Amino acid sequence: MKTRPMLTLEDCRRISAAAEAEAKRNNWNVCIAILDDGGHLLHLARMDGASPANARIAVEKGRTAAESRRSSAVWEERIKAGRNSMLGMPGITPVQGGLPVIVEGICVGGVGVSGVQSHEDEQIAAAGIKVLG
Amino acid sequence: MKAQLRVAVACVSACLALAAGAQQPSPLDAVPEKMPNDIPYGTPISLERAQAAIAAAVGESKRRDWKLNVAVVDSGGRLVAFARMDGAQLGSIAISEHKARAAAMYRRETKAFETGVQAGNHYLLTLDDVIASRGGIPILDGGRLIGAIGCSGATGSQDEVVCRAGADAVKR
To answer: Which residue does chain A place closest to B97, by CA atoms?
Structure first.
């Protein structure tokens, strides 16, 4: 039987705290969502000043990354390159700011961030995931 | 034949009795002078306080070896913070948020809906976005509603114990 690593609540707290610190350092107010490899919510933190829309978008970006095992920016790039049909992909939010969490070569979930410019959202998500080493 | 006739008569009598019962005044017709749950909405809960509520709830749950999902929403019923404990069931992710949202939107504990439905007031289930299960509690600050907490994953009674621990930790 194969075994696979999975995110614990403690892992999520560390990821979220690191992401939040990155956002605070830049004076950004964002929402940070962490989902498991099935696209189910594990942890969410909406910083003061981030909107309800940010909460929803962060979850969907994270879900896109977790379920498709790739950054939501990849989807955005493909559409930008002219593959308009990708807009119809079910359950995909093709906007930068969602990153998969890869541990030992396996996707164990995704982190989605929303609140500032998309490349800044991704920078925050990356800072969060980095704490896993 | 006679037996059939007796059944028919019994049926008619039962129907008449029901009709007569329907003419009794309904307790829902009473018009109280004051409206219930007249709680003003306040400033939306901060992330720091929402996370304190979640930490208290998760702590209580851990002590009892329960695995729950805990959600905190703001005064608009929108998600501010969420945590899924290791081993908590997936179906309860949405339920915990739903309980919190219903507690904020209706300014009462979700137990009120559960109790009402148990008592036969099934019309409660026709109200928008109601969840008739305990474990959703408003968070107040100085008499104003600033958010709500919802827990799900165990029995309703267990959810409520954990939920209360979270709500009590941050109320003022």
So the answer is: A41
